[in-house]
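[step 3/7] fold_predict: job queued, chain A
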Amino acid sequence: MIYITRRERFNAAHRLYKEEWTQEKNEEVFGNCSNINWHGHNFDLYVTVKGKVNPETGFLIDLKLMKELITENIIEKLDHKNINLDVDFMRGKMASTENIAIEIFKILKPIFLEHKVELHAIRLHETENNYVEYFGD
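[step 4/7] structure written:
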């Protein structure tokens, strides 16, 4: 079994809040992340797939194809967007980094399976100090 990771980047804004709570309660729970004027991050997305090397090509997956799949299905939907308002797969969900990573995993898992590789993990860096990793259910 071999693992390959591709890094992509996107910039996006979001806000952590619950509509049913007061602004004071949102600020108490989410701090500055509940700013009513939103806030943004320069996200680093790491997508790791695993499988067996194709003896004919020497590849697990062509990295150009991996980039295309991630860009088309994830980056184009997130980059320079408001995650709460503009991103279809995040509608109705708390726009936490944890939930973003889970939703990215759900989207990419079947796409990579079509190309005979298994999605192993999503690692999403929100800041240089904070990131989440998701390995599926």
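[step 5/7] annotate
Residues 97-114 form the longest helix (18 residues).
The chain has a mean pLDDT of 96.
exit 0
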